[in-house]
Amino acid sequence: MTNSVKACLFDLDGVLVDTAKYHYLAWKRLAEELGFAFTEQDNERLKGVSRMASLDILLSIGGISLEEAARLELAERKNNWYVDMISKMDRSEILPGALEFLQECRNNGIKVALGSASKNAMTILNNTGLTPYFDAIVDGTKTAAAKPDPEVFTLGAAELGVSPEECIVFEDAEAGIEAAARAGMRSIGIGSEETLGEANLVIPSLEHMSYRRLSELQA
Ligand code: B16
Ligand code: MG
């Protein structure tokens, strides 16, 4: 990596917090109400995917096809259950290493932005106390196109006033790694090499990242 890193852009679910477990419980409840089973393996397909696209995947698993109005009603029903769960989140749900690395970025003058597909990102950031760590927050309420479209990260860089080559994206979803590449940014995958092999580097969690390691990447 040759360009100096001026900003880190973080995905939320799967990188800073594990909200996938709450999404899973809410989608499972919806599937059960509709009369079919929804497994944890099925839930893997929804990670990083927008709410309506997630619903479409779920309905296809159940072999159900519905008009737009009915789909919107189901998405809202699922979201209400999900919001009930995330409203009880606190600092203890921040993933290992995340807080320490965010603090290190701030201490060393690296700008920090959020780049999440979630329309509930502010609730999660406020409840976990993460909001003050960010110089810019781009979430699902600000974007028109979902990952792998690069919009969420392009907007983040613009809000921070940095160029794409100066950014590093931290992502747990394949679609997010693709979005970073399409934005002209380098990326670090959080998870397994198997699914995130296209990233510039893959680490199991932010416990394996530090300002020192970031500096080594730019050398
Ligand atoms: P909401 P991320 C994504 O968050 C989740 O991974 C994905 O499962 C969810 O469907 C999406 O946000 C939209 O969330 O229903 O709250 O708007 O990984 O982009 O931070
Ligand atoms: Mg994610």
From TrEMBL:
<feature type="binding site">
    <location>
        <position position="54"/>
    </location>
    <ligand>
        <name>substrate</name>
    </ligand>
</feature>
<dbReference type="InterPro" id="IPR036412">
    <property type="entry name" value="HAD-like_sf"/>
</dbReference>
<feature type="active site" description="Proton donor/acceptor">
    <location>
        <position position="13"/>
    </location>
</feature>
<keyword id="KW-0460">Magnesium</keyword>
<dbReference type="GO" id="GO:0008801">
    <property type="term" value="F:beta-phosphoglucomutase activity"/>
</dbReference>
<feature type="binding site">
    <location>
        <position position="13"/>
    </location>
    <ligand>
        <name>Mg(2+)</name>
    </ligand>
</feature>
<dbReference type="Pfam" id="PF00702">
    <property type="entry name" value="Hydrolase"/>
</dbReference>
<dbReference type="GO" id="GO:0050308">
    <property type="term" value="F:sugar-phosphatase activity"/>
</dbReference>
<feature type="binding site">
    <location>
        <position position="172"/>
    </location>
    <ligand>
        <name>Mg(2+)</name>
    </ligand>
</feature>
<dbReference type="InterPro" id="IPR023198">
    <property type="entry name" value="PGP-like_dom2"/>
</dbReference>
<feature type="active site" description="Nucleophile">
    <location>
        <position position="11"/>
    </location>
</feature>
<feature type="site" description="Important for catalytic activity and assists the phosphoryl transfer reaction to Asp8 by balancing charge and orienting the reacting groups">
    <location>
        <position position="116"/>
    </location>
</feature>
<feature type="binding site">
    <location>
        <position position="171"/>
    </location>
    <ligand>
        <name>Mg(2+)</name>
    </ligand>
</feature>
<feature type="binding site">
    <location>
        <position position="11"/>
    </location>
    <ligand>
        <name>Mg(2+)</name>
    </ligand>
</feature>
<keyword id="KW-0479">Metal-binding</keyword>
<feature type="binding site">
    <location>
        <position position="147"/>
    </location>
    <ligand>
        <name>substrate</name>
    </ligand>
</feature>
<dbReference type="InterPro" id="IPR010976">
    <property type="entry name" value="B-phosphoglucomutase_hydrolase"/>
</dbReference>
<dbReference type="GO" id="GO:0005975">
    <property type="term" value="P:carbohydrate metabolic process"/>
</dbReference>
<feature type="site" description="Important for catalytic activity and assists the phosphoryl transfer reaction to Asp8 by balancing charge and orienting the reacting groups">
    <location>
        <position position="147"/>
    </location>
</feature>
<feature type="binding site">
    <location>
        <begin position="11"/>
        <end position="13"/>
    </location>
    <ligand>
        <name>substrate</name>
    </ligand>
</feature>
<dbReference type="InterPro" id="IPR010972">
    <property type="entry name" value="Beta-PGM"/>
</dbReference>
<feature type="binding site">
    <location>
        <begin position="116"/>
        <end position="120"/>
    </location>
    <ligand>
        <name>substrate</name>
    </ligand>
</feature>
<dbReference type="InterPro" id="IPR023214">
    <property type="entry name" value="HAD_sf"/>
</dbReference>
<dbReference type="GO" id="GO:0000287">
    <property type="term" value="F:magnesium ion binding"/>
</dbReference>
<feature type="binding site">
    <location>
        <position position="27"/>
    </location>
    <ligand>
        <name>substrate</name>
    </ligand>
</feature>
<dbReference type="InterPro" id="IPR051806">
    <property type="entry name" value="HAD-like_SPP"/>
</dbReference>
<dbReference type="InterPro" id="IPR006439">
    <property type="entry name" value="HAD-SF_hydro_IA"/>
</dbReference>
<comment type="similarity">
    <text>Belongs to the HAD-like hydrolase superfamily. CbbY/CbbZ/Gph/YieH family.</text>
</comment>
<protein>
    <submittedName>
        <fullName>Beta-phosphoglucomutase</fullName>
    </submittedName>
</protein>
<feature type="binding site">
    <location>
        <position position="78"/>
    </location>
    <ligand>
        <name>substrate</name>
    </ligand>
</feature>
<feature type="binding site">
    <location>
        <begin position="46"/>
        <end position="51"/>
    </location>
    <ligand>
        <name>substrate</name>
    </ligand>
</feature>
